[in-house]
């Protein structure tokens, strides 16, 4: 177990490895939460979500939330608490505007963004306190997040076939809630009616708009999440394949093996 916290002006960077912890009634800063291993449960205002390995969420500074970890294996996380003034200065300099209201949704940690977060985590673990370098990495993290946000939120919002911009924003927000619900509950039996209810959409409206925004159906997305979690378990645990099938929510081992092979061009056994 370990906990390290470094301040960079009014910003804070926290690296934590733990099994059991809970924090409640948090707010006041823009919060980037990254999970490298294990799972972390959140209550974000009225929403329950779970961050899986290799995922993150960026929360607005006035969002109230709680987080908890209850795990038999060590959970490793990185949290960056950005001072609102730092974020607003970044927006004004890089985007020409400030005070944007972010759609809060789960994203994958990939590419340069993943590299910068890993480097930042390594510096924190080593005890490095070069304020200029750390500030540069905070800027890089915001730049990386802005690129992801542009692709995952702004561009997807534009792909929705509505004339009114406010309607596009609202529908994308509801679709993000549906997507986060599937990620957070991937191991459970989930039906379309339940997903649509969570998103406050009809089933037909959910299917139509989800395909417009994400270029796949909710079922296809849920299958992808389950396969990626199976891949993680195959690589990082000793669970038998049949047990992994149950853990990630598949009912039939043979269909799981077929889907895994079609997605990754290798069988689960050979991948392991």
Automatic annotation (TrEMBL):
Q: Which UniProt keywords apply?
A: DNA-binding, Transcription, Transcription regulation
One Pfam match, by short name?
A: HTH_18
> Which SMART domains does the protein's record reference?
HTH_ARAC
Looking up InterPro entries in the UniProt record yields: Homeodomain-like_sf, HTH-like, HTH_AraC
One of the record's GO molecular function terms = DNA-binding transcription factor activity
Q: Where is the HTH araC/xylS-type domain?
A: 176-272
SUPFAM superfamilies found in the cross-reference section? Homeodomain-like, Regulatory protein AraC
**Mind telling me what this protein is named?**
Transcriptional regulator, AraC family
Give the species this sequence originates from. Pedobacter nyackensis
């Amino acid at each position: 177990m370990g906990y390290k916290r470094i301040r960079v002006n009014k910003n804070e960077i926290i690296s934590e490895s733990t099994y059991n912890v809970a924090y409640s009634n948090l707010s006041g800063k823009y919060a980037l939460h990254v999970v490298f291993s294990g799972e972390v449960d959140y209550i974000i205002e009225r929403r329950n979500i779970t961050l899986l390995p290799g995922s993150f969420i960026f929360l607005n500074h006035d969002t109230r939330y709680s987080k908890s970890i209850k795990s038999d294996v060590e959970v490793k996380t990185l949290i960056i608490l950005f001072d609102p003034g730092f974020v607003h200065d970044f927006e004004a300099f890089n985007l020409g505007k400030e005070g944007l209201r972010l759609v809060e949704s789960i994203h994958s940690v990939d590419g340069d963004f993943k590299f910068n977060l890993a480097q930042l985590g390594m510096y924190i673990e080593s005890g490095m306190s070069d304020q200029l370098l750390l500030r540069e990495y905070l800027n890089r993290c915001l730049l990386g997040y802005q690129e992801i946000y542009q692709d995952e939120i702004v561009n997807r919002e534009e792909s929705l076939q509505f004339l009114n911009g406010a309607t596009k924003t609202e529908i994308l927000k509801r679709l993000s809630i549906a997507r986060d619900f599937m990620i957070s509950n991937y191991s459970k039996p989930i039906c379309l009616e339940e997903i649509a209810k969570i998103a406050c959409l009809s089933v037909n409206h959910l299917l139509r708009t989800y395909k417009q925004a994400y270029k796949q159906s909710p079922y296809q997305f849920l299958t992808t999440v389950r396969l990626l979690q199976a891949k993680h378990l195959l690589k990082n645990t000793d669970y038998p394949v049949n047990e992994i099938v149950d853990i990630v929510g598949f009912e039939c081992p043979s269909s799981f093996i077929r889907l895994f092979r079609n997605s990754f061009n290798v069988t689960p056994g050979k991948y392991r």
